[in-house]
From TrEMBL:
PANTHER family: PEPTIDASE INHIBITOR I78 FAMILY PROTEIN. Residues 60-73 have a biased composition (Basic and acidic residues). Residues 57-81 are annotated as: Disordered. This is Proteinase inhibitor I78.
Amino acid sequence: MPLVDPVTMGTGSKDLATRWLSQVAGKKIGNVTDETTFAKSELPKEHRILKEGDMATMDHNPDRLNLHVDNDGTVKNVTAG
């Protein structure tokens, strides 16, 4: 279960992305949540982690969280769709 559930708190995909960005920006996605890592198990069910240069489907899913990470796995941006 996520620490914060932006899906029920926001009104749209921009709200979803903004709320999650504040939770995960600058952190790596891992198995536990601590000062430098955010637990993958706490992300919404509908999510994908995209590294620089990764291909992604273009289907739009407003409930899906897209975590954009750099080459070392640090979250740089979050979008929804």
